[in-house]
Design brief:
Pfam family, one: FAD_binding_3
Organism: Streptodolium elevatio
Number of helices: 14
GO molecular function: monooxygenase activity
CATH superfamily of the domain at 5-72 and 102-171 and 267-344: FAD/NAD(P)-binding domain
Mean pLDDT: 94
Keywords: Monooxygenase, Oxidoreductase
CATH topology of the domain at 5-72 and 102-171 and 267-344: FAD/NAD(P)-binding domain
Protein name: FAD-dependent monooxygenase
Low-confidence stretches: none
Number of strands: 19
Amino acid sequence: MTGRTATVVGGGIGGLAAALALTRRGWRVEVWERAAEFTEIGAGLSLWPNALHALAALGLDGQVRDLAAVEAGGGVRDRAGRWLSRTDNSELERRFGMPLVVLHRADLVRALAEALPPGTLRASSEVTGIRDDGDGVVVEGGGIRRVDLVVGADGLHSTVRRLQWPEAAAPRYAGYTAWRMITEPMPTPVGDGAATWGRGERFGFTALPGGRFYCFGTATVPAGGKAPGSERAEVLRRFGGWPKPIPDLLAAVPESAVLRHDIYDLPPLPDYVRGRVALLGDAAHAMTPNLGQGACQALEDAVVLAASLDAAPDIDAALARYDQARRSRTQMVVRRSARMGTIGQLAWPPAVLGRDLAARLTPAALTLRSMTPILGWRP
């Protein structure tokens, strides 16, 4: 496979992981990123066992675990702060071979970027056209390149998807918005992370290295809304009276640290490959964050794409293999994540009561077993 060339469009987690997986199999790769630098402005990120297995295939699992925090446990609470379900991280690791870890998204992006050969990354390079050229693909925009493969890893509003899948449905609003934030180091212990379910609202938190916490809140509101004041003030208004330690965590969030994003997912595509162009990550299967699997599935995509190209006799056969391996799995995760979001955002009091009772009565072992199709993945 040596000597083959690829352009990866998008310098986020999936694109950088794909570039690394390909370069380690002898491909010459350029990563085109529209932004002026390769970084990530998001907040925290959960990496479940399947993602750590993908990072192990890239040779980065140990390095990433050094950058992350591992919590002893977590779970779901009701609006009064009572536990509905709990998770033992040691059991998660025993069953799936890796723990659940949490780190800042920027730290993972940096680790992936620094593992790439010099000259791989091209910032301020926007793709404006893609066209077939016999046995290859011509990429136009931030220069012109003829390559053997184009990987579209350019996110929810993917240019590559728009160019090659013009019939694809637009991303769909999930019905709720999310605030994400990172606290300053907490002066006192906080305890295990948790997601607290309210009525049409949720709030969750989990530990990061250095005593900081990643927090998120969600609320069922129309798309495109903005708080009348600051987003931090809106978060305090909605969640400041929720059970401890939520008020203490919010008190430690700087004014500028609150990010707000409406939540979208992508209707299923009929395929992830068109000619020598392949989609991965959010460009192929953007999902809601309810299972914490967005980045995890992108890392899986990257590893499977490179392995398929290594195993199949030619690129076209390899891409067909990749599409077959990834499409049904990732679209299953999209559906499950959407269902979990619907459950978490319930607002009608009888439905909320039934949801909370069902969560309280479901054994933790059964909950963990239900996640096996997702977390049990291996390269």
